[in-house]
């Protein structure tokens, strides 16, 4: 008994109304989304100042993006975790390995290689500290018990298996201690400084391939040292650098510098697919609404 009323209905009217409501829903959402971005710049219509929602609130948008990035996406904890991740540590290790392997076959002198990292002036500054280093070495030797240690070793060696000399072991030790102590007192820093500088200069002239030749364990140790140094730096010192970087300010300034067309492109690049779904959702909701209203109209019309 429900089929006869359905047959008698004006289906042309129902179909037309359904698609009309669908088009209205599609057009409504299309216009609403268009008004999110346009007009890009303020326009006066009928005495009212009109501008798109996003362009009008560009400063608030910049502040919101900056807050999100600085607090949730690029904060210190996130960056630190990422920099100390297994993947990043493996990349550092691989880089160190490749770098050391490259130096292993290089004929470049060590000094030239260091200039690429420290610059020639900085190397000379380090070399200029050799006299002060020599003074400190000499002072440490004088303040130490090295004279007693040398005298003890020498006395033990001289009196070993020689019972006659062992009778004079204590006087011999005292004599050697005094002699070595006097020699140390007479030492000057200048010859030590000249010796260290000469050896350092010769070492800086050594080709890298000679330094690393047949030293697999040494290379592996350097690789491990590089990885550990990187991890220790990130763990203990990276926060000092990160504290100086105003991520919030950088992001906000960058968004503020963008023109309104760029802001529209940036926003649409993120949510364009969702906006298209929203437009078509308006169309399908319009279809459903139009069909239901038209159907109810046809069912209720005979009762009027």
Describe the structure.
By secondary structure, this protein is mostly helical. The protein has a domain at 132-205. Helices cover 82% and strands 2% of the residues. The chain contains 18 helices and two strands. A two-stranded antiparallel ribbon has the order 1-2. Strand 1 and strand 2 (48-50) form a beta hairpin. Helix 6 (86-104) packs antiparallel against helix 15, helix 9 crosses helix 13 (189-204) and helix 10 (146-159) packs antiparallel against helix 12 (169-186). The chain is rod-shaped and about 135 Å long. The model has no long low-confidence stretch (mean pLDDT 81).
Please render the helix and strand layout as text:
Blueprint: H1 3-8, H2 11-37, E1 43-45, E2 48-50, H3 53-56, H4 58-73, H5 76-83, H6 86-104, H7 110-118, H8 120-128, H9 130-143, H10 146-159, H11 163-166, H12 169-186, H13 189-204, H14 208-212, H15 216-236, H16 238-244, H17 247-257, H18 260-300
Antiparallel strand pairs: 1-2
Helix pairs in contact: 2-18, 4-17, 6-15, 7-8, 9-13, 10-12
Attribute tags:
rod-shaped; single chain; two-stranded antiparallel ribbon; 304 residues; 2 strands; mainly alpha
Structural class comes to mainly alpha
Radius of gyration: 42 Å
Shape: rod-shaped
Beta-strand percent range = under 5%
**Residues in helix, %:** over 70%
Order of helices and strands: HHEEHHHHHHHHHHHHHHHH
Task: Characterize the main sheet.
Answer: 2 strands, antiparallel
DSSP E strands, number: 2
Strand order of the largest sheet: 1-2
Quaternary structure: single chain
Q: What's the mean pLDDT score? A: 81
| Count of individual helical segments | 18
Distance between the termini: 20 Å
**Unreliable parts:** none
